[in-house]
Amino acid sequence: MTALLASALVERALAVVGVLLVVGLLARCAIAARPAEPLLDRLEASLTPARERLWIALVLLCALLMRTALWDRDLNAPYWFAETTQLWVARALTEGHLARQWLELLTTFDAAYPHRSALMMPVATAFQVIFGPVMHLAVLVGAFWGVLGVLLAWLLGRALEGRVFGLVFAALVAASPLQLVWSRSGGIYVSGPAHVLLVLWLGHLAGRRRSIALAVVTGIAAWCSLYQYYAARVAIPLGFVAMIHGLRRAHTTFPKAVGVLGAGAFTLCAIFVAFRHAGVSPALWPTYGGYLGNKGERTLADLVMQNAAEAGRQLRAALERYFLYTRAIRGDRTLGWGMQRGGLCFAPVALLGAVGLLGALRHPVRAFPWLALMLAGLALPVLSVTTARRLLLFDLGWCALAALGILAVLPLRCWRTLSVRTANGITVGGFLFLAGWSFASMALLTAAMPERAGQPIPFGESGFGDGIACLRCVHAGEAWRTEIARGEFIVLFDSDLEREDRACPGGLPLYGKQAAFAAGRNASFVEFYSLVQNFDAEPPVAGAVFDRARTDFASHLAERVRLAAPASIVWHFEEPTQWETWLSEQLRAAGGELETFATPLSRLPGIRVRTPPERALALLRDLADRQHSEDRVCALISRELREVYPWEVWHIAPEPNTDSERTSWLVGGWGAVARGAQTLPVHGPNNLQPDPDGRRFRILTRLGLDVGLDVSRWQLSEQRPLGPARVGFDCAVYHRSAWWIVDPVTGTVSSTDGDSAWLPAGRWVGIAATPDGSLALASADQTVVLVRPEERREIARFPADVWPSRRATFGECSLVLAGDGWYATFNPLLSALTLYDRRGERVGVCGLDRVLGLGAHRITAIGATGRHIGVGISTQLETLALSSLTP
Prior knowledge:
Elements: H1 2-31, H2 39-46, H3 49-68, H4 80-83, H5 85-95, H6 98-105, H7 120-131, H8 137-160, H9 163-175, H10 177-185, H11 192-208, H12 212-223, H13 235-250, H14 254-275, H15 280-283, H16 300-323, H17 347-362, H18 368-383, H19 392-409, H20 420-447, E1 455-456, E2 468-469, H21 471-485, E3 488-493, H22 508-518, E4 525-527, H23 528-533, H24 553-564, E5 568-573, H25 578-589, E6 593-597, E7 606-611, H26 613-625, H27 631-634, E8 637-644, E9 651-654, E10 665-668, E11 672-675, E12 678-681, E13 685-690, E14 696-701, E15 705-710, E16 715-721, E17 732-735, E18 738-743, E19 748-751, E20 764-769, E21 775-779, E22 783-788, E23 793-799, E24 815-819, E25 822-827, E26 832-837, E27 842-847, H28 848-852, E28 861-865, E29 868-873, E30 876-882
Parallel strand pairs: 3-4, 3-5
Antiparallel strand pairs: 1-2, 5-7, 6-7, 8-30, 9-10, 10-11, 11-12, 13-14, 14-15, 15-16, 17-18, 18-19, 20-21, 21-22, 22-23, 24-25, 25-26, 26-27, 28-29, 29-30
Helix pairs in contact: 3-8, 3-9, 3-10, 5-7, 7-8, 8-9, 8-10, 8-11, 9-19, 9-20, 11-12, 11-13, 12-13, 12-14, 13-14, 13-18, 16-18, 17-19, 18-19, 21-22, 24-26
């Protein structure tokens, strides 16, 4: 942080020095003698082929060092989407038949990940074969594409403008902080700049040499942009721009020009026809809501009218974020000094680019390829959404304009008295300083990042919200790698699905798997909840973990531990809930050693328990056995009604005053509530409860807003903010004009009327209202307690199977149900409904996945009233009927 504060002073001093130098140069221009030969001509003449090769070798070496220095450390914030690649590569290598896999990728367009790109997957595979599945391998893969881009910038620049320009352009691309960060971050985006530069270079050579063969090669290279991130598709029109520019330079005849251009166009069309693939046309532009062409436009007028205002907003956002704001601090629009302030481009390059732009506009025909590259790069964010990665091609164009700006000032009279050696020294010094400042900015800004999840990557996030990282996740993975290498087996408990959401990726499971691969013990890491649910969303599995027709989670884990033969099992609770705290204590009682640790990802200290394998696995075996479905219990449940909604069902509450023979439900999604065909928008309805007056519902949103719903009029009534800043899924009950709210992380219960101090002690993780006006509280220590708030006393308690809920968010409450003469707890990880009679005696367990014929555990919501149970399965609502239980 001290270095970042000092950078502001350094920048101020450099600004003063820069102003003084400009004034001095202007004065010198006024009085300097004019030698016979301009400096630019002397520089070009001094660049022998050997010297040029030496200079570009030094630029490439500098680019390589910047992009690979300390590559196996978290010098830069890793990008989740790039870090997954090595797991997919490991799977591909395990499956074998790489040639067949690659041929299948040739028919895959608009790839979102490197492992789905026919161009990037072979490169990633080659690096993994050479270096092994080490952590942060994405840095080396990105360095390959980044350095290749610098080399192609030199080739293109010298072909279009000359040797001096080529070196300056390559140096600016090498030192660009945006290119540097994304090269080290990796992902599908990093090869786009190199690909576009390659097509431009080939197109120019085809036109300059009037070569039909090179035109065909250009067409093929342009077509291959379909295997890249969509931003690279600008290579298709830019390739023809470069051809036209080259043909003009060659002063070719019209028939020959038509032949060259026709060869490139024919090649593109021939490949298109040969593939006859339905995915080709959509791949030219993303089919993503809100982008140009995805708003139902039918005519050109529609296209303009529906997109003009948004394009204007995105243009402003792109220019502001590139030149002015949000380099490292999300949402900060204040101008200032220092590495952490400013846009994605350094001020000297921005100013030189402005000079180059003015010069290019004076001679637009000569500079047309650079203007086209700049405009095409700017059009990408303007016509979609502005993000840092979508400005990579605009950054290329601006570096080219900055190189033109440098060349534009060299003919000034003040430079003509400089020797070539002095000019080279100034150029090398400026390049090294710019490269060093770029590298230091990346490293220092990353070092200053909080370790919490969802932190913006410096030069990687520009306000959109997906260029983010979780450094604590990386550090946890690095620690696991060491433990796994010395023979430990890691079981991670990760219930924070919001941190692991793809829109705001974290990475605890990802880096755990990377750690196991890097340690050479692939099977020595397990994420507990994915194992129990038998569904792993993370690569390289991305599906069922085991065959649930043949085994269960406890048996599968025991088998993996047997094969790994670890010295001990480490049970890691990064963000412990009360249920996880209870389990950790059970593990300690089974002979484990418990320790806590500080972590920025949790309100409470994290927990680790190291146990010998046998006794801990016996504990899990007992938990699994208690959740086995029993046919005699499932026979008590029958299906009655099925409804379909336009969105996923996350909450279910019964309508008041429904009889025992039929029932209707109020259903909540992410942003709406519904009753049958009637729908109302509500932001984040997390808890739905009928008001005891029978005419209204109460809705408690995830941000703690209490909203009334008049059922008879079907309209929202009053709303008021409550105390809690955030309320979990199904964590609240509305009882006698007050909300009773459970926090499953701290295990506390609060009431909006302040009357909760009398409640008995417990690890409270769930709550439900009973038909007789009591509250049923579920405790993580496997107990359900019935309390009567108006009497301020406990009336009953019984042992119960209480499992956590992990459906969509963090801090969800365990699911407890109460009907007429029965109670139940529900485990959504196993679709297991455990029934109890009116006295709390255990009746047994029914797997609702069997009753409903589900192929996986994917129940999203559950509710109860009378003898009925409502079950949400994605967009469906099933109403089940329960037969009477013997008292």
